[in-house]
Design brief:
The complex is a heterodimer. Chain A is an all-alpha fold. Helices cover 77% and strands 3% of the residues of chain A. The two termini of chain A are 16 Å apart. Chain B contains eleven helices and no strands. The longest helix of chain B has 31 residues. Classes of the chains: A mainly alpha, B mainly alpha.
């Protein structure tokens, strides 16, 4: 019962911002928080449940972003189809990556994902015919979309807010379903002891590749959204190591393998990042790094994990 | 032919400095099984140390090794004792992310105090390169190569010949057995982290006259650093040296014969291939 109540409260809170404020900065902050919730939740599917620490998820984010932008700029494909296809493109890219990198374990897996991400970033930077290289891709106008009697007003932030809220909720729903599904149990077994999991007949490679594909799909959706929201992508914005690392941070700060964790991680980390960005000219990530270190030191299970433990401990 | 020899020479020179960066990381990994993501930022601190002592006190960057290396050693030990040690029992992932947080903290503190401006160290003897046999060798790079060779040799002798060095190698091979033999493993871990930090600082100082300095340079260095140590085998000192020189060669030959734009990509592709087919390193000496 408490569980349902918590989920209901979180969903209501997620829908609230555009109803209670028209302040552009606050709405932008809320959109950023939800985008990172989506990304943290996507990473969490693989990293949290299966314990496979990817440092290369920026690849899927970037592929999703570029696929969506290129489909729109070249073929005029509307955002929603574009984002879904961006997710699909990320899935396609994830399959060979998974088959290669999952041959490795532990820190070696993490290093290999980092290497793949760097290779993809360098290719995006140099393949100018497709990506326009370091200059990036720019959208000057979004397509008119009819909604009821009026079109969607792309100048406002509200439609973007609604889109990202739905996407983040979908990623959280996927996390919840995974935690109930057979695949989720396989992944937990892999996280705890991969050899043991294999010896009881779990096809570990298949389970991991499937989960990576799911995780890449949501990450790609996030990338597509990023492109449409900011109207601009370039390799340094969507492919850097920093994006991959931030996704890991959010999942860990919130609480690994939890449904609510990524929301909490994104709320704390994004707010800290954005608030200090306002105050400081440079070096606003000082507090971000410090906060990260403090959480790992004092709440190794993440904020939500720690809170849950405190709650059950008291009863 | 001359281009080939020229790129060989500059490959080996740069590679020796890459090896210096890799050494610190591999030594720390060997003993503590920590992949220190803040290692690149420690190198960055060394670079800025050389820069500031040159600008403020007119100390030659290479001479400034004497000031900064002992300080980095001390700083590294304190860093381990007060910040890292409480985290290590929490597991590999937490330690990895903790050092990632530390990396953000150090890089952004540097951004805050020194701004993001690109800086260079201007040395009077850097203007005209040496030209043995018609091959251009920049003097700062040659000096850095010589000092890197000396430092590496000193490290080798220290690890091979002294009691403390033996204790470090023993802990790296099997920490429990080392503890049973009466080695204070905690102390060794602290000293090793100090050593790793000192090596990072030294690498930074040697690199400083040949590179642009900016606070987030560590990001690029750490990525190269992984390539280096995995090529040679994570945890192996000899492997880090070989890996560093190999990467230097691959980059400089790749830039000439393949493409300047893709020279870094070649390094990463080789890295992936080695990870897949020889995860214990090209020479099979690392710990997979």
């Amino acid at each position: 019962m408490t569980r349902v109540a918590i989920v209901a409260v979180v969903l209501i809170l997620m829908m609230a911002p555009p109803l209670v404020t028209t302040n552009q900065f606050l709405l932008h902050l809320a959109i950023t928080v939800l985008l990172w919730t989506l990304l943290g939740a996507s990473w969490n599917l693989l990293g949290g449940f299966a314990g496979q620490v990817s440092f290369g998820h920026a690849t899927f984010f970037g592929v999703g972003a570029y696929a969506t932008m290129i489909l729109y700029l070249r073929l005029g494909l509307a955002p929603w189809y574009g984002m879904a296809l961006g997710g699909a493109a990320a899935v396609l890219v994830s399959l060979p990556i998974g088959l290669i990198c999952f041959r490795l374990r532990g820190p070696y897996f993490s290093l290999s994902t980092l290497a793949v991400a760097e290779i993809v970033r360098l290719v995006a930077l140099n393949w100018e015919a497709l990506t326009n290289g370091p200059v990036g891709l720019l959208i000057t106008a979004l397509p008119p979309v009819a909604l009821g009697t009026r079109g969607i007003n792309w100048e406002s932030k509200v439609p973007f807010y609604c889109i990202i809220a739905v996407l983040a909720a979908l990623a959280m729903a996927a996390t919840w379903i995974l935690s109930r599904a057979r695949l989720g149990a396989y992944l937990l077994a892999i996280r705890e002891d991969e050899d043991a999991a294999e010896s009881v007949g779990i096809d570990t490679v298949r389970a991991k590749v499937l989960t990576l594909a799911l995780s890449a799909f949501f990450t790609g959706l996030g990338g597509g959204f990023y492109g449409f929201y900011f109207h601009y992508v370039d390799p340094d914005a969507v492919f850097p190591i920093a994006v991959s690392v931030e996704m890991v941070f959010i999942a860990v700060v919130g609480g690994l393998a939890t449904v609510i964790g990524p929301v909490i991680g994104a709320v704390f980390l994004t707010t800290i990042g954005e608030l200090f960005r306002e105050r400081f000219q440079v070096g606003h990530l000082i507090f971000y790094g410090l906060f990260m270190m403090l959480v790992i030191r004092y709440l190794p299970e993440g904020i939500w994990g720690g809170a849950r433990r405190a709650w059950t401990g008291r009863r | 032919m001359e281009t080939f020899v020229q790129s060989l020479v500059s490959g080996v020179l740069t590679g020796s400095l890459y090896a210096m960066i890799g050494l610190g990381l591999t030594v720390v990994f060997g003993v503590m099984r920590i992949i220190n993501l803040a290692h690149g930022d420690l190198v960055m601190l060394g670079m800025y140390g050389a820069f500031w002592s040159h600008v403020l006190w007119r100390v030659d960057p290479f001479l400034s090794l004497v000031i900064w290396v002992p300080l980095m050693f001390l700083g590294g030990m304190l860093l381990y004792r007060f910040l890292l040690r409480p985290i290590v029992p929490g597991g590999e992932l937490n330690t990895l992310l903790y050092t990632a947080g530390l990396s953000l903290l150090i890089a952004n503190l540097a951004l805050f105090s020194w701004t993001g401006d690109y800086r260079t160290i201007k040395l009077p003897y850097a203007i005209t390169p040496l030209r043995p046999f018609g091959i251009a060798v920049p003097i700062p790079l040659a000096l850095a190569f010589a000092l890197a060779a000396v430092i590496t040799l000193a490290l080798y002798l220290f690890l091979a010949r002294t009691d403390l060095g033996r204790a470090i190698r023993a802990t790296s091979q099997n920490a429990e057995a080392a503890a049973l033999m009466g080695i204070d493993v905690e102390r060794i871990a602290m000293i090793t982290f100090g050593l790793g930090s000192a090596l990072a600082g030294a690498a930074g100082i040697l690199l400083a006259p040949s590179l642009y300095l900016y606070p987030t340079v560590g990001e690029i260095l750490i990525a190269k650093c992984f390539v280096i140590v995995v090529l040679g085998g994570l945890g192996s000192v000899a492997g880090a040296i070989a890996g560093g020189i190999l990467l230097g060669l691959v980059e400089s030959l790749g830039a000439v014969y393949v493409s300047v734009a893709y020279k870094d990509t070649i390094g990463f592709v080789i890295f992936l291939l080695v990870l897949l087919f020889r995860p214990s390193g090209l020479f099979g000496v690392g710990k997979a």
